[in-house]
Every structure is written in structure tokens, then in C-alpha cells.
């Protein structure tokens, strides 16, 4: 993998983000068409901003999109797919067969014998059926399960990381001789910010794409705390911004193999105003505020896990703070767990063990 310093990536993202902000403020539906795109075919002067861009999509909410009311199982993916295709992108969906929220970057290991993965065609929900028919993929959508037989209601599902592995190592090549140019994960039902990022299947998918040197962006839409507003999760608004951001990154030749972004779009309630996109750091608090209820004796027992109040955020410029202020939080990730600073004490201890 070609190393790209995080500071350099942040600088490029900041420039593209400024263009996306300008598009948001002006109300335009897309950034200007690039004059020197780095990916795929070169659009003409009046072409759609993502013309010819090959995009692999996945999520952690499933490929099936059966929950038309709340959108918990893939509505965000289909809204993003619609927007990308309308902007000229050539889209292929390879996503988990069923729900995988909280899967992180989990992979299904083969152990001592091969593990079967079935990539099975999925009919998009009727409202989205014709969205991508003109692309080279024909708008193909696939769900992936961990089985040698056809995927069904009781079949174990592949994880988001599994789907990216299958698609980038083998399956995408059945549609494209080269590519994809970009992996898009989401739009997720619910925000992925702060400490929650470590456990997000949506984010785990883009970290996996980074291992293949493919630029990747995770998109998530905030779920309102008012349960009556859950049907109004901002999937369409997130998709609209996603197109503008990707077009701006493409125009500035920033869709390189070091790019990994985590984007969270706020839910904007009545009387509130959408803030500007901002480049943020991953916060330290957990937006979910997970809490275990009940007491369990030392002999064992059952706890109940429920969401609670988020812990106060202590990191400056955190994504948690930005989202709470109705701003679109965008964080650049390096996709790596290694640490290069603050290792002095550990190094000293290890030296004494030799």
C-alpha cells in the first residue's frame, strides 16, 4: 500500500470540502464537472459530475431494503444509489444479505476448511427499481450470505467487510475490467461518531476497502432521539451531499488510494437550520451512551443493555460536537491501528525484558 501522510490527506480533503460547502450554500445539486478527472472516462463540459465513475456500494443494514417505513435495512443505500446514478456514476451493490449493524471490520475466517460465500441477486425495492438501469452494471444489486446454498431468511449473513473482500478480490471483476474507482458504504441508519466508529460495520467496510488501495467513504444519517421523527431520517439529504462531496474530491484528483472518510449528516428538526460541513476529529465519547441495567450476582445472570445519555465530549473539534450542532461532520481515517507516538514507556519495559 502506498503510504500517504494523514496531514496531506487532510489538506486535500479540506480543499474539496470547501468546494462542497460552496455547493451547499449556493444550493446547487452538484459540483461543477471536472476538467481533469483522475478516475474513469473524462466527462464532457455538460456531463453529469460523476459520469463514468465506477462505484462499489455496500452497507451494514442489508441489501434487501424491505423496511419501507423506517428504513432500517437498506433504504439509505438505495437513496445513495439513486443519487449516484443520477449524477452519472456506474454503480454495483454488493452488501450483506441481512442486518450487520455493529459488526465493525469483522471477517468470516475459513478455519481448517473452506467457507462458502453465496453472492445472490437482489431485486431492489419497487421505488428504486429503475434508478441505475443505464449503467454498465445495469444497476445490479447483490446480497452475500455465508452458505453454499441460496440465501434465505435463516441463512447466516456475510459481514460488511466480507462483502468488500468478496467484491474487490473477485466479484467486481465480473462487471468491470478495472476498478472500482470508489467504495461507498451506506448511507447508514444512524450516526457513526465518536467511540462508536470502532464498532461500526459501515466504517469497517471502508477500512477494508483501504486494505485494497481503493478510496472509500462511509456515509451515515443521524437518527433523531424523538421516536416519532424516525421515519424522517435524512437519507435523501445525505445522498445529495454525498454526490457534491464526491464530485468535488474527483475534480481535485483527491480520490486516491489513501482516502478514507467518515461522513455523518445531522437530522435537522423543525425550526432548526442545517450547518455547514466541517472537517472533524473522531470524538472520545459514545453517542449511544450504552448502559447495562439490573444487578447480577457473582454466580452469573442476565443484564439488559439500553441506550442512555452520551458522555460529555472532551476532544476539541470532535465529530460528536459538530453533529450536535447540526453540522455535517467529516473525518479522515487512516484505517490503521498502529501507533507511532507515545511509546517511550512501553519501549523501555520491552528493552528490560530482553
Automatic annotation (TrEMBL):
Gene3D superfamilies documented for this protein: Survival protein SurE-like phosphatase/nucleotidase (3.40.1210.10)
Keywords in alphabetical order: Hydrolase, Metal-binding
Presence of keyword Hydrolase: yes
Cross-referenced InterPro entries: SurE, SurE-like_Pase/nucleotidase, SurE-like_sf
GO molecular-function term, one example from the UniProt record: 5'-nucleotidase activity
UniProt entry tagged with the keyword Flavoprotein: no
EC number, UniProt record: 3.1.3.5
Reactions catalysed, as given in the entry: a ribonucleoside 5'-phosphate + H2O = a ribonucleoside + phosphate
Family to which this protein belongs: Belongs to the SurE nucleotidase family.
Listed name of the protein: 5'-nucleotidase
